[in-house]
Design a protein that fits this description.
Blueprint (H helix, E strand, L loop, with lengths): L1 H14 L4 H20 L2 H4 L5 H19 L1 H9 L1 H7 L4 H21 L2 H10 L4 H28 L3 H17 L3 H8 L4 H9 L2 H9 L5 H25 L3
């Protein structure tokens, strides 16, 4: 656990020594507020809730989370510092978990900085704060899922731009899979059971019920299993490529 903590502190601190963290935070907050209060039709709905915020959050994560995760392993490999990392008395699992937790913590900071949106909604009306809290919890789990995907993509390449693009593509697929237009298109070429199974892997579909305040154990297990699967894939890839 001490090794994981060391990697965690190292990685989290590294986010804030470059302008990237501040650029991501700034644009994420600007876009999140814009989609919540303007493009999301918040004022026209006459309802004091965060439905518009949670409605757009999977799409925002699909674009912003790959920017957070793209450097995790790609930078290590391109700079050659991964060789030094591998000489430390830590396992690949400890390194992968430490890096992932640091990125997840940074994503949690992004979410925490949207708290003024919640305060604004509470000031304008009387929202269901319990449902909003559950929505934020689900958002944090969803962020972990996106980050696990991005971490694996970062492990595949030395190029951060390629890692970002790969993470973006898979993240978008994980969101689009639940859209009715996609399901209708797939239903013409695939059996209904397979279409439903594909939709069941969509982050968007899993998050929609949580964002309404419904905390289903199956949705929680889904995101935890997604994180476990992609972190396992990350460790395997790094182990294969560490000699390159």
């Amino acid at each position: 656990m001490n090794s994981i903590a060391i990697i965690f502190r190292r990685e989290l601190a590294s986010y804030f020594v470059t302008p990237l963290a501040y650029v991501v935070i700034f644009f994420f907050l600007v876009v999140a507020n814009a989609f919540t209060f303007y493009f999301g039709g918040f004022y026209g709905s006459n309802q004091a809730d965060l439905n518009t915020f949670f409605q757009w959050l999977p799409w925002l994560f699909a674009f912003f989370i790959p920017a957070i995760s793209m450097r995790l392993w790609a930078e290590e490999r391109s700079s050659g510092s991964i060789e030094l990392l591998m000489t430390l008395p830590i396992t690949l699992w400890q390194a992968a978990v430490g890096k992932f937790l640091a990125a997840w913590c940074f994503a949690g900071i992004l979410l925490a900085l949207t708290f003024p949106i919640w305060i604004t909604v509470a000031w304008l009306g009387d929202p269901d704060n319990g449902a909003i809290f559950v929505g934020y919890l689900g958002a944090l789990l969803m962020a972990g899922g996106f980050l696990a995907v991005g971490t694996c993509m970062s492990a595949l390449t030395r190029n951060q731009v390629i890692a970002f693009v790969l993470g973006l593509v898979i993240s978008l697929v994980s969101v689009l899979a639940a859209l009715p237009i996609v399901r209708d298109g797939l239903s013409h070429i695939l059996p209904a059971a397979i279409v439903d199974a594909i939709a069941g892997f969509s982050f968007l579909m899993r998050f929609q019920s949580i964002s309404k305040g419904v905390l289903d154990l199956r949705d929680l297990l889904f995101f935890l299993m997604v994180m476990g699967f992609w972190l396992l894939a990350t460790v395997i890839i790094i182990d294969i490529k560490k000699a390159e």
